[in-house]
Amino acid sequence: MPAGELEIVLRLVRGGDAENLARLSAQLGFPITKERAESRLRDVAGAPDHAVILAECGGRVAGLVELRRVRLVTSWRQVEVVALVVDEEFRGRGIGSLLLAEAERWAHDLRCGKIRVRSDNAREFAHALYRKSGFEPARTETMFEKQLEVRPKARGFVPTSIIAKGGPASGRGSVARSAVRVAMAALLVVDGFLRAGPGAVSGLGALLSPELEWAPGALEILGGLALASGWRPRRPQAARAD
């Protein structure tokens, strides 16, 4: 894709892009250090609902778009453009339009019914780009924010919100349930080996032919292994209308 005499290449962000992210974030009006950019990249690495796409022009990182998929109960799932910035040196070459087009393709792949972006009223140049790309103003609103004190990292942290308490990896209840499941699985496996051993006949095995006397013990062993791994039979899913 030509940009003047240079070619534009789009790619996903990598761990070594922290310095470029910090530079572009500062141009967007949100200065961060390279170290902070590295930390944030680690936080979002592999997240299925998040993406950062970079535009390279002549081998240099010239712009980025940061996206997130929003899945809500009260609205159709959508992709939100969290940040869009093109390096001052490369503006006016169509890079922003290419990044927005790639964002739209991702939304299409995710079967999202909407793509949206929030933009400050002072960014008139950005508004023109969005309109050119097919975006339309939805409404005028006031955004409220409240600064919070970030809690320090601690090993013995106890969640305080019902959301964190209800998470699959939080609370003592889930640990206790896991321990009970593993103990029961171990008992099943041991008992299964005893039943399936030479000369051992279970109550059910006595009703079977000699060739199948080992079957109840084997089933008990398999059940114990399945319980230990947390395996559950999959329920049939109804077809979704959306």
Entry summary:
With 242 residues, the protein is of the alpha+beta class. The protein has helices spanning 18-28, 34-44, 95-109, 124-132, 162-165, 172-196, 215-229; strands spanning 2-3, 6-12, 50-57, 60-70, 78-86, 115-117. Strands 1-2-3-4-5-6 form a six-stranded mixed beta sheet.
Q: Can you count the helices?
A: 7
Summarize the biggest pleated sheet: 6 strands, mixed
| Average pLDDT over all residues | 81
CATH topology of the largest domain: Aminopeptidase
Q: What's the CATH H-level superfamily name of the largest domain?
A: Gcn5-related N-acetyltransferase (GNAT)
| CATH first level of the largest domain | Alpha Beta
Helix content: 25-40%
Strand order of the largest sheet: 1-2-3-4-5-6
Our estimate of the beta-strand percent is 15-25%
Spatial gap, N to C terminus: 35 Å
What would you note in describing this structure?
The protein is of the alpha+beta class and 242 residues long. The protein has two domains: 2-138, Gcn5-related N-acetyltransferase (GNAT) (Aminopeptidase, 3-Layer(aba) Sandwich); 172-229, no CATH class. Helices cover 37% and strands 17% of the residues. The chain has a six-stranded mixed β-sheet with strand order 1-2-3-4-5-6. A hairpin with a 2-residue loop joins β3 (50-57) and β4. The two termini are 35 Å apart.
